[in-house]
Amino acid sequence: MNKWSILLTSALLIMTSAHAADVKVSDAWVKPTIPGTENGAGYVVLTNEGKTEVTLVGVTTEVSRAAEIHTHTMNDEGMMRMQRVPRLAIAAGETVTFQPGSYHVMFFGVKNPFRVGEQVAFQLQFEGAPAQDVVAEVRPIK
Ligand SMILES: [Cu+2]
């Protein structure tokens, strides 16, 4: 190995570690839409495999008029209500599990109803990590 290839290898290693703030998206699924409604909900498991915090800042999709990250919070009367989450920070090594009653991808104005067995594509945008294309399977509600 000559001087230049060592230099190149070091540069590649530095690039790899700079790129290490990657988010693993797993177990992506979407609820079937309820007939007569035009809103949907999707779920993912996000694991920050990097060494620095990343922040989920948005979601885009072609399958609906709009999409947002939501969660459920309890109001003063003890009722659950949905709330938009503009920024969701994920610490290095942390896993955030989206699930019914908690974090979800909210689809507004679904163009074609989500049917069990079909797939729904969307993209998650992060600060501190590359955007992730996600293909979620429409699964029956457990
Ligand atoms: Cu919602």
Describe this structure in words.
Helix content is 11%, strand content 49%. By secondary structure, the chain is mainly beta. It has one domain (21-138): Immunoglobulin-like, CATH 2.60.40.1890. Strands 1, 2, 3, 4, 5, 6, 7, 8, 9 and 10 form a ten-stranded mixed sheet that branches. Strand 9 (119-127) and strand 10 (132-138) form a beta hairpin. It is globular. The relative contact order is 0.27. The protein binds copper (II) ion. Residues 70, 82, 104, 106 line the site of copper (II) ion.
Mean pLDDT, to the nearest integer, reads 90
Cα-atom radius of gyration: 18 Å
- Helical percentage: 10-25%
Helix and strand string, N-terminal first? HEEEEEEEEEE
Query: Which architecture per CATH?
Result: Sandwich
Described by strand count, sense and barrel closure, the largest sheet is:
10 strands, mixed
Using the coordinates above, name the CATH class.
Mainly Beta
Strand content range: over 45%
* Count of domain modules: 1
How far do the termini sit from each other?
A: 57 Å
Hetero groups in this structure are:
copper (II) ion
Structural class: mainly beta
| Strand count | 10
The CATH topology name reads Immunoglobulin-like
Number of helices: 1
Which superfamily, in CATH terms, is the homologous superfamily? Answer: PCu(A)C copper chaperone
**Global outline:** globular
As residue ranges, the low-confidence spans are: none
